Task: structure prediction
Amino acid sequence: MTDLLGTPSLDTISRIRNEKARRYLSSMRKKQPVPFSERFPKADPAALKLLQRLLAFDPKDRPTAEEVSVCSI
Result:
């Protein structure tokens, strides 16, 4: 997941409740996110934008079911 999305920010890591997971993520080598448009060049840009939001590491950054249900994709 981090190979595509990059490593989560320190702020995001600090909100993880599981201490073992926090330690693991904090110890990882920092990775930059790969733009979805580079990884999936033939995909619809709107679909890629939605996918990126759905895969957000922090649940508070993900869309709600209602937001997804009204999506035009």
Remarks:
- The first helix runs from residue 2 to 5.
- Residues 2-69 form one domain.
- The mean pLDDT is 94.
- The chain has one domain: 2-69.
